[in-house]
Each structure stands twice: as C-alpha cells, then as structure tokens.
Specification:
Strand content: 5-15%
Oligomer: single chain
Order of helices and strands: HHHHHHEEEHEEEHEHHHEEEEEEHHHHHH
Helix content: 40-55%
Number of domains: 4
CATH topology of the largest domain: Nucleotidyltransferase, domain 5
CATH class of the largest domain: Alpha Beta
Shape: extended
Distance between the termini: 129 Å
Largest sheet: 5 strands, mixed
C-alpha cells in the first residue's frame, strides 16, 4: 500500500508523460500500479482509500468482538489468540493483535463520553485540591491549591497536614487573598468534607457545614471522573508541583526550611497571576478586580473554633498548655493564639493580616520540660556576656586593638586573678611598637593558653618565638632520622672504679 506522498508522485508522473510504463519508470513502481491509481482517480474515488481484502481472520471477527465487548475492552490479545486458535485459526499472533486493536478502537469510539463545556460565571465558583509537596528536613508537606474558576486567580499555600483546622485556615487565607467570598466552593470527597455517600448522595461533615455557614458559602464536592468539575483544580495542582517540587526536570534545590517553601509559593502565585492566561487572554489579577464586584463580603473574624483552645502569649513569648510551656514567635507577645494537639504535636495558630496561619509546631512535652525553640526569639547581640572584652578607656582600646590574642589574654588573666593587669597591658602595647603587633598578639595568645601572667613572661615568650623563626627546623630525610639515639643508655648499669673501691 502506497502512502499519500507516493501516490501523488505516481499521478504527477502520469500527468507528465501520459504513459503508464513511462510513469512507472519515473515513480519506480509497476505500470499496473500506475493504472490502478489513475483509474481510481478517473472514477472519482480517493486514491488513498485502501480496499479491504479478505483475510483468514475475518471469519473469527465476530468471536473477537464478543470477547472484547464482554471484557469491556480489557482482554489481552494473547488470550484472544489462544481462544481463536482453539477454534481452528492458523494465522500468527501478530495478525490477532492487529484485529484486536481495531476492535478495541471501534469499541472506544462507540463509548466515548460527550459532555457540554462548563461555562463559568464571575463570583460563583472557587475550587481547591491537594498536591504532594516537597520534603522539608525529611518531613512531607502538602500544597493547598485553590483557584477562582472565572478569573483563573490561583492561591498556593504549603502545609504540614490536611486536617480540618488546616483546611479552615487555608480557606480563610484564600478568601482574604481574593478579597471576598464566592457562592460555591468545590473540592474533592475527602473525609474532612464528606463523611460518606448514601444512595450516591454525599453526606457532609457537620463541622465543614458550620465553616461554610460562617463565611456564607456552599461547599460542594466533585463528581467522580468528571473533568469539567475537577479539571481546573487538578491543572492548578499540576502546574504548582511542576514549579515548586524539586525534580530532575526543573533542577530545583531542596528547601532549607518551611519558610523558604512559603516564600517560593508566594513568588509562584505572583508570577502566574500576573501572566496572561492562555484561555482568557487576560491576566488573572486583572480579571480578579472585575470578579471582586460579584463576591460576597468577607467576615472580619475567621472561623476559629476549629483551631483549638485560645491562649494569651506571655511576656517571655510562651504559652501554657496542659501545664507545659511552649514558645511562639516573639512578635506575638501579648496577643491571642489558638493551640491544638494533632497526634504527638502541638500546633499553634495565629490570625495575621493575611488570615489564620500556623506559627509554631512542637512535639508534645510533659510538665517540667518546657519546649523552647531559638528561632522564636530575636538574636542576642552578645551571647557570651562578660566573656567579650569592651574597652572603656583609650589604654584598654589600644591593648585590645592588638588582636584576638590580647582579648584572650585579658579574659584568662582576669579568670586567674593575675596581679597588675593594667601595667602589663601597657607593657604589651610598648612591646608591639618594638617587635610588631602580630608578634606581640601571638605571644599574648600563647601566654593565655599556657597560663603565664607573671612579670616578664610576655617578653620571654616574644624573645623565644622570635628566636624560633631564625632556627632552621629539623626535617627527616633519607640520611637523617629524627628518632633519638640510644647512646645515652650505653653506660646504664656500669659502675666506675671509684665506686667499686
């Protein structure tokens, strides 16, 4: 069977020569082939249409169709081949595979689902779904991916779990980012939203119903395998994972902390929302400004019942839960937060300008063992306290300017209770003018390590160290070894003549 390009070359050769044999020589085929295609064109038939020729497997097609239909298109071709071979088919398995593929294609074409496209309206639908996020220090994360169906405005928030309080916090943060509440929120049939189905009717979780009532919206769930209701949120998940989760395709580095992942999610949302969407030919942030006019007002207070128990942050940036103190970020001092236990972890939630957000997470502790984290407190300017010398006069500043050896000498001398420290400091400054600052600072460091703070100890160390630099150090070679000899032991145990007498 010739392909379309070869057939056109054959017909072009015939039109040029007007002879079957001459056209066959130009096209490199048999003249009977040229005649067949020219005749088909003259009769108004498509030259590329292949005429069906009888095959040995044709008499078994009805059985093949029966097997494919009964198995809903899942039966394997090798199984079909064994069945029809037992009925007398003598052809090869390759022929069977081709016939089975044709029958399956016809079955799929007859069962293809046809549906009307979903035409969205502004202010009606918000969708959310979950995606697997990157690991932070070996811990799994999840990506909350939400979007407004009409404006295509996306919101991606990283979280550590998918519990109901986390869903409420993410939902509140999403509504505050879009600046209003749509009429419906569409999501998947998870246990936090749908507790079960009765006669194919979804039974809502009573707590999520209270959340929806608080915000004045209706939460609905998707139909299984329905691309129109699931396609938008799944596309948001797919795009977010492609840009945020480190893979071999995007060559992203692993995130050092959860804060880095949060910053990456915010940058991702800014990028996609300020980029022209392929379907609408508009930037989602511009379409959102128009859709906000159709959104309902957002309640001032979030739905905080699901966040846990309320606690007031003490002056030391801690809260008390079941008799145990847990630290929170210091900027939350004298504010109200919510705390709840999820397994063996305590999760602390605070309401910020962008909505509820998780601010701290601790392993469950016991009374008498507070859980304090350093990152919740501002860095201290001087962690060593009185171990860092600070000059209070010009003489002290001149001494400390010699270098770290001078500071170490002063610290150790003070701890050892050395006498006449200030005169010795003045002596060190004077020696630095004669022997150099580096030499004196090194001698001071050596004195601090050796604990030598007596009179003239510093000048002795300076003289000794300067003498070491003029001496060529001994090195082991093939002719000379640094191993000490044994000549001193030769007279061990031998007495002199005087001792014998």
């Amino acid at each position: 069977m010739k392909n379309s390009r070869e057939i056109m070359e054959i017909l072009e050769a015939y039109d040029l020569t007007g002879s079957y044999r001459a056209a066959a020589e130009l096209a490199g085929c048999d003249h009977h082939t040229v005649a067949r295609y020219v005749q088909a064109r003259a009769e108004g038939k498509s030259p590329t249409e292949r005429q069906h020729r009888a095959r040995p497997i044709d008499e078994y097609l009805s059985k093949i169709e029966e097997l494919v239909v009964n198995s809903h298109g899942r039966i394997r071709a090798d199984i079909v081949h064994r069945r029809i071979a037992a009925m007398g088919f003598t052809g090869g398995e390759r022929t069977t595979r081709r016939a089975v593929a044709e029958v399956k294609a016809q079955l799929r074409a007859g069962q293809r689902r046809v549906y009307r496209p979903w035409i969205t309206e502004p202010g009606l639908w918000l969708q959310w779904d979950w995606g697997e996020g990157p690991k932070i220090a070996g811990r799994r994360t999840s990506l909350w991916c939400a979007w407004l169906a009409w404006s295509r405005f996306r919101v991606v928030i990283p979280v550590f779990d998918k519990t109901l309080p986390t869903i409420v916090a993410c939902l509140d943060a999403t509504l505050r980012r879009i600046g209003g509440v749509p009429a419906y929120a569409l999501t998947d049939n998870e246990k936090t939203v749908t507790t079960g189905h009765v006669a194919n009717i979804a039974v809502r979780n009573p707590e999520i119903v209270e959340v929806a009532r608080h915000y004045g919206m209706t939460i609905r769930t998707c139909l299984p395998a329905d691309p129109e209701t699931k396609g938008g949120s799944e596309a948001t998940v797919r795009i977010a994972k492609a840009d945020l989760v480190p893979t071999d395709a995007n060559l992203l580095e692993q995130y050092g902390s959860f804060g880095h992942l949060e910053a990456a999610c915010r940058d991702f949302c800014d990028e996609v929302n300020n980029r022209i969407h392929r379907a609408t030919r508009r930037k989602p942030v511009e379409a959102l400004a128009e859709e906000q006019q159709r959104l309902h007002p957002l309640p001032r207070e979030p739905f905080a019942v699901a966040f846990g128990i309320t606690r007031r942050v003490n002056w030391d940036a801690t809260i008390s839960v079941e008799g145990v103190r847990y630290s929170v970020p210091h900027h939350l001092i004298d504010t109200r937060v919510w705390a709840r236990f999820h397994g063996d972890e305590l999760i602390v939630t605070a309401v910020t300008a962008d909505g509820p957000a998780e601010v701290a997470r601790h392993d469950r502790s016991t009374p008498g063992s507070p859980s304090i984290k350093d990152e919740h407190y501002p860095p201290r300017e001087n962690k060593d306290g009185d171990r860092t010398p600070r000059a209070t006069s010009a003489q002290e500043a001149a001494f400390l300017a010699l270098g770290p050896g001078a500071a170490s000498w002063l610290i150790e001398a003070g701890a050892a209770g050395a006498r006449r420290i200030k005169p010795k400091m003045a002596e060190a400054v004077a020696l630095a003018k004669l022997h150099g600052v580096a030499e004196v600072d090194r001698a001071l460091g050596t004195a601090a390590i050796a604990g030598r703070f007596a009179e003239n100890d510093l000048i002795s160390i300076v003289t000794y160290q300067s003498g070491l630099e003029s001496i060529e150090p001994s090195r082991a070679t093939e002719e000379h070894s640094l191993q000490p000899g044994t000549s001193a032991w030769s007279k061990f145990g031998v007495t002199s003549d005087k001792e014998e007498h």
